Amino acid sequence: MPPGLPPPPAPPLRLRHSLAARITALVVLVVITSGVTSLLIIRELRALKVSFDLLTIIYVKFNQDLTTAYRQSVRITTHARERRGSEVQRLSPGLEGVLAEAFETRAEQVQQARSVLDSAIAHPDRLGGEEAVRTLREFREVLSRLEDLAAAAANLKPAEALADVRSENEINELFRRLDDQVSRAIIDLQIQVSERERETERTIALLAAATAVMALLAALGVIWTLRPLRRLAASVRQLGEGDWAQRVAAPGALRGDEVGRLALEFNHMAEALQERERRLIRGERLAAVGQLAAQVTHEIRNPLSSVALNVELLDDEIASASPEAQQLLRKITAEIDRLTAITEDYLGLARRKPPERVPTDLAAELHSLVDFMAEELGSAGVEVEVDAPGPAWVLGDAGQLRQLFMNLLRNAREALVGSRGGAADDVSDLGDLSSDLARTPKIAVRLRQGAGVVRVSVEDNGPGLPVEDVDKVFEAFFTAKPQGTGLGLSIVQQLVQDHEGSVRVASTGPGGTAFEVQIPACAPPPPSVSSAGVPV
After folding, report:
1. Interval 286-321: pLDDT, tens
2. Which of 146, 215, 382, 522 is a plausible cystine mate for 174, CB 3.0–4.6 Å?
3. What is the pLDDT of residue 424?
4. What DSSP state is assigned to residue 431?
5. Number of other CB atoms surrounding residue 437 within 10 Å
6. Which residues of the chain have pLDDT under 50?
7. pTM, full prediction
């Protein structure tokens, strides 16, 4: 990718090939398997519960009621055998009452047993099958005859009921028949419950194994799906070790999934880091050039100072010389001043040191700087308007902040002077000379606070910047002035970055150019206290 160009757009993400879709499909498969397993287990447990309920709730309850009724019948039969051959009139009142109660209790117990069967048959869905319903209906047929005989005996007098030996024998026979049928049914049902319990255990074990296998296959699928991430991690590790040429070739990039997109973004990041490395190397080279320039400047400054001193002495000696000689001396002096300014710029580039940042009132510094430069700006015919309400506290180096805004003010001044026929600096543009001459050169300095930053704009009403120069004005050694050094705005940018801020061309055009500096705000310093304990 060529430096400075944005990375090409990533291919569109196709949902069916995405990692999320594949992993979701595996998870859904496991969930479906688990759901089917759970449903089958629930079905087996429900069938087991039906058999168990049939055994405990219906058969056991029916057998209890039937056993109670049978006991009463045995009691009645015992009295009948003891009184057989006796006269019915000889029953004592007490015995007659006991027998009457026994006949009624037997009839009630048979009726209760009948109600258990009726309730169960009324809900065949709870019995687990037609075979259980058919068995209960067979019980009810026998029990219906028994219920009729028991009710008829309960309606007779005890002596008459005891005399009806045939009915009592039939009742006892029906009791024994039902007892045998119920006992066999209970045994069969117990065997059925045991078999179903073992079958349920086998089914649960089989389904659990199938679910475990499916979960294992899903885990292997996830591992296989995420396999390209390991290659990406290895590439990141190599990039972290300084291999800036490292790139990732992920097959997923061709499929358009997340790993492919991540690989593309990684490659873009690697290219950006490689470009940053190249810029750092260029910066180091620039620093080396600055050191060399400092040495050369040091060798030039002393002779240049001697030349300037000799020119002043010569000017005093030939004060009465011809105008041509005086004009020549003035040109020499101007060139000496220009060379001195250039050497100062190079020294400033070479000797730039980290700022000593302390809470500083930027508004006060701006007012002080404008007052200091008032004569310089006034002699150039430039009006300055300052709108900097204070205090505006920033964490900065006061000296470097003054240099920063001094460079911006001088840049604006030279842009205004250049537009009126003088030499222009980094941001000069000749423009329309007639409109520039009709315009009063003016610089506006405005300070605003908000959102944790302090914004300072330096605006001029010069001709503005050419569009092609807007992105280059902060580059070192870039200048549109024939005799410019191209260091003013580059130093501004470096100083702003040292203060964790930013600088940009806020606007430019025929109406002028505005540079905006943003520096993080800070809390004001605590008030100092005098030796007497009074805040100063």
Report:
1. 566 566 666 666 677 677 777 777 777 777 777 666
2. 146
3. 39
4. -
5. 10
6. 1-7, 10, 13, 87-89, 252-254, 422-434, 437, 531-532, 534
7. 0.46
Cβ atoms 200, 45 nearer than 8 A: yes
Q: What is the pLDDT of residue 426?
A: 44
Q: At what angle do helices 398-419 and 488-498 cross, to 10 degrees?
A: 150
What span, in angstroms and rounded, lies between the C-alpha atoms of 234 and 263? Answer: 12
Give the count of beta carbons closer than 10 Å to the beta carbon of residue 535.
8
| φ/ψ (deg, to 5) at 384 | -125, 130
CB 421 within 8 A of CB 459: no
- The Cα 146–Cα 69 span in angstroms is 11
Q: What strand order describes the sheet that includes 383-387?
A: 383-387, 442-450, 453-460, 512-520, 502-509
Determine the residue type at 316: D
- Amino acid (1-letter code) at residue 244: W
Cβ–Cβ < 8 Å for 499, 358: no
Q: DSSP strand E in 234-372: where?
A: 358-361
Is there a contact between 370 and 456 (Cβ–Cβ < 8 Å)?
Answer: no
Q: In DSSP terms, which residues pair with 504 in a beta bridge?
A: 516
Structure tokens at 437: 């001459």
- Which three-class secondary structure state does DSSP give residue 250? coil
DSSP-derived 3-state class of residue 523: coil
User: H/E/C letters for each residue in 283-298?
Assistant: HHHHHHHHHHHHHHHH
Cα–Cα distance for residue pair 480/477, rounded to 1 Å: 10
Task: Report the distance separating Cα 423 and Cα 86, nearest Å.
Answer: 155
- Pairwise CA distance, residues 333 & 349, whole Å: 25
Cα separation of 305 and 317, whole Å?
A: 18
Of 405, 390, 437, 401, nearest to 418 (Cα)?
437
Helix (H) or strand (E) holding 520: strand 512-520
From residue 411, give the alpha-carbon distance in Å to each of 296, 416, 512. Answer: 26, 9, 13
Q: Across the chain, what does the average pLDDT equal?
A: 76
Q: 344 vs 293, 310, 369, 370, 398, CA distance in Å?
A: 11, 21, 19, 21, 19
The two beta strands, 453-460 and 442-450, are antiparallel
In terms of DSSP bridges, do strands 393-396 and 442-450 run parallel, antiparallel, or are they unpaired? unpaired
Cβ burial 200-222 (10 Å sphere, 16+ → b, else e): beebeeebeeebeebeeebeebe
Q: Would you state the pLDDT for residue 428?
A: 42
Q: Minimal CA–CA distance to 262: which of 510, 13, 511?
A: 13
Q: Is residue 56 within a helix (H) or strand (E), and if so which, with residue range?
A: none
SS (H, E, C) 453-484: EEEEEEEECCCCCCHHHCCCCCCCCCCCCCCC
Give me the residues paired with residue 361 across strands: 393
Cα torsion for 302, 303, 305, 308, to the nearest 10°? 180
CB–CB of 370/445 below 8 Å?
yes
